[in-house]
Every structure is written in structure tokens, then in C-alpha cells.
Write a structure and sequence with these properties.
heterodimer; A: alpha/beta; Rossmann fold; six-stranded parallel β-sheet; 6 strands; about 50% helix; about 20% strand; B: Rossmann fold; binds thiamine diphosphate; binds magnesium ion
């Protein structure tokens, strides 16, 4: 099972069938699998804070949801986390393609990419960075358990070291 | 039409259906009109009222009502496009359009300078739209919306008339009180 298939399996293990996303070329390796799988409903949002809102609505009505976005889009979602998810205590797993690390070619992706973890820390939210797929099944399963126990958002950051990324 | 009377009317027509309300006076007035577990008050996250309602509508077959505001939906107009794209049959968006950012001092919003939200909804592929200016037309529009396949988008022009007191709302209680009407509450060991 490759890393993308492992994410799909974990989402199913945690009965997380509503997936809301804004496209990213690397995360497409997962969202394209989700799109083909009738277990899931894949919803396109126009903006990442909207994606968080849709996910919270789904969770509120009893269906677990996750969001997929790029690190630039994480910047668009901060107020939704701070003023909706955290006060209302919603366990929303976020799968973020973390740009701005080794292999980054685009100066405009560096600052926001590198700010994701410090912002998550300021918000007091847990996060994990995946740089290879070793023990990934355990880590993903444990992260989902933590997310639901904490009833707060949680970020799984996917890097170019993991997925090969976009290199130019 | 005043928002409070309009809110009381929608609450009466809604029966058991979930209602999501925009931050500020829209949420306060929903609370004063009648607090119930299926009221989802928002107190921050400006712009996300109808996005939350869209998520609910895709997660359940029940009728979902969003009581949004002009300023808030202008902030997240992309979600009107997402509603037009997903076309949930069970979603009715009502925009309380006072043509102002009311809570922040009544500054004129873009609907007061020509933006027509009903046309925005139409151009996003939402077929069932209406603009209403009095309670009678609102009652007819909401009654029809709840009885037919949506999505429905109703712009309700309202006059501001002073605010009621801020509702005693706790977001965490709001969410789990709401959610527990859909799923069994957490049990020991869960
Ligand atoms: C992201 C964000 N920006 C600005 C504000 C300040 N703010 C609070 S309510 C509001 C106006 C909302 O306007 P509308 O949705 O039309 O509701 P009304 O107050 O008119 O009922 C603004 C700008 C905020 N709470 N959050
Ligand atoms: Mg307004």
C-alpha cells in the first residue's frame, strides 16, 4: 500500500466519508483515489476556510469529515479554525501539502509553507509531518485517535520527501 | 419587515428542521425567537453560516435552513457557487439583507450599492431564488421552499430596528447539543 492508499484506508477506518478540498497537485494523488471510491463524498470548495465550514457542518450533522489543502490555503483557513473549530471543539483532520521545504522551487510558497507549524502551535493544535512512509499506518491511526479524543482539528503535513511533489 | 418577526416566522415554519444562523443579531434573535437543540448559532467565523449549512445538507436528508447576512455572504460568495455546484435538494438559504454590516455600526454593504444576491445565486446555478420584502411573501417563499426540491435561495430585505440582548451561547454546547440529535452521544469508553 503506498502513502496515498494508506491515507484512504485510515479515513475509512475512522468512518470519515465527507472529504472537502481545494486542489493541490500532490494531494491529487489522494483526492483522485477518493473521487473514484463510492465510500466517499468528495466536495470541491472555492476556498479553504469554506472547506472547514462545510466539514464542520457535516460533523455537526453526524458525518465525520476531513479537509485536504495546500499550505498556502492553510493561511486562508486560520480564522475558521480559531473562531469555529476550536470554540466548538470539532475534530477535523486536515491533510496539508506542506510547501516551502527541501525541493521547493517557488519563492511565493516558502513563507506560508514554513509558517504552518508555528501557527498550529500558536493555536495549540496537534500536527505531524510525514517525510517518508515508514510506520505511516500507525502514525495515521494514532493521529486520528488523538484528533477525536481531543475534539480539535489536527494536521497531517505531507512533504515532497514523502510524495515526490512538484519540482518545477 | 423586521428580522425578529421574520425569524419567528421561519422558526414556526421550520418544524424540527435544523437552522444555522449568522453571527451577531441573527443568532441572538434566533435564540430569543425560540431556543432549541437544532439551532446552530455561530458567534465568529464570519461568512461560514451557509457553508456550515451546506455541509449539514450533504450529511443528512433533513431540510436545512441557513439564516445568513448580506455582509457575511459577501465575504464568502464562493460558497454560493459551491451550493450551485452540489445542488443539495434539502438546503434553503435565507439572507437577512439589511444592506449593511449591521453589528459593526451599520456601514452600507455592497447590497446597498447595487450587488443583487439573488442574481448571484442564479448565476451560480441555483434555480429556485426569490427576493421578498414583507412577511407575507417570506411566508409563501419559505413554505414553498420547504415543500419542494432545492437548493432554495431567498433574499429577505429587512429594516434594522434595534438589537435584542446577546444570547448566552456556548459554541461547544451548541455543536454537541445539535449533533446529539443526529447521533448517539458519546458513551463511557468511547
Ligand atoms: C472575519 C471577520 N471580519 C470582520 C468581523 C467584524 N464583523 C462582525 S459582524 C460584521 C458584519 C456582519 O454583517 P452581516 O452579515 O450583514 O450581518 P448584520 O450585522 O448586518 O446582521 C463584521 C464585519 C468579524 N467578526 N470577522
Ligand atoms: Mg447585514
Amino acid at each position: 500500500m503506498n502513502w496515498a492508499e494508506q491515507i484512504v484506508k485510515t479515513l475509512k477506518d475512522w468512518e470519515t466519508s465527507m472529504i472537502v478540498y481545494v486542489p493541490d497537485i500532490s494531494i491529487d494523488q489522494v483526492t483522485s483515489l477518493i473521487d473514484k471510491d463510492p465510500y466517499f463524498r468528495l466536495v470541491s470548495a472555492t476556498r479553504e476556510e469554506e472547506a472547514i465550514g462545510i466539514a464542520v457542518g457535516s460533523y455537526a450533522a453526524g458525518r465525520n469529515a476531513a479537509v485536504f489543502m495546500q499550505s498556502s490555503g492553510f493561511g486562508n483557513s486560520v480564522n475558521a479554525l480559531a473562531s469555529l473549530c476550536i470554540p466548538a471543539r470539532t475534530p477535523i483532520p486536515m491533510f496539508i501539502n506542506l510547501r516551502g521545504g527541501p525541493g521547493e522551487f517557488n519563492i511565493a510558497q516558502v513563507v506560508m509553507g514554513r509558517a504552518v507549524i508555528p501557527i498550529m502551535d500558536q493555536l495549540g493544535l496537534p500536527h505531524f509531518i510525514l517525510e517518508d512512509d515508514g510506520k505511516m499506518d500507525k502514525l495515521l491511526d494514532g493521529a486520528m485517535k488523538l484528533c477525536h479524543a481531543n475534539r480539535q482539528p489536527m494536521a497531517i503535513c505531507l512533504t515532497q520527501m514523502l510524495h515526490g511533489g512538484k519540482i518545477a | 419587515m423586521r428580522r425578529f418577526e421574520a425569524t419567528q416566522l421561519v422558526l414556526r415554519l421550520a418544524g424540527d428542521s435544523p437552522i444555522v444562523s449568522n453571527l451577531g443579531p441573527s443568532s441572538d434573535e434566533l435564540w430569543h425567537a425560540g431556543h432549541r437543540d437544532r439551532n446552530f448559532y455561530t458567534y465568529g467565523n464570519m461568512g461560514l453560516c451557509s457553508s456550515i449549512a451546506l455541509g449539514m445538507a450533504m450529511a443528512t436528508d433533513e431540510q436545512i435552513i441557513s439564516l445568513d447576512g448580506d455582509g457575511s455572504i459577501l465575504m464568502n460568495m464562493g460558497t454560493v457557487a459551491s451550493i450551485g455546484r452540489e445542488k443539495p435538494k434539502n438546503l434553503t438559504v435565507i439572507v437577512w439583507d439589511n444592506e449593511q454590516w449591521g453589528q459593526t455600526g451599520g456601514q452600507t454593504s455592497h447590497t446597498g450599492t447595487g450587488t443583487d444576491l439573488e442574481q448571484v445565486a442564479r448565476s451560480c446555478g441555483i434555480a429556485r431564488t426569490k427576493t421578498v420584502t414583507d412577511l407575507e411573501d417570506l411566508e409563501a417563499a419559505v413554505t414553498e421552499a420547504l415543500a419542494s426540491d432545492g437548493p432554495n435561495f431567498i433574499v429577505a430585505k429587512i429594516e434594522e430596528a434595534g438589537y435584542l440582548s446577546v444570547a448566552p451561547v456556548e459554541p461547544e454546547f451548541t455543536l454537541y447539543r445539535f449533533r446529539n440529535t443526529f447521533v448517539a452521544p458519546r458513551q463511557p469508553g468511547d
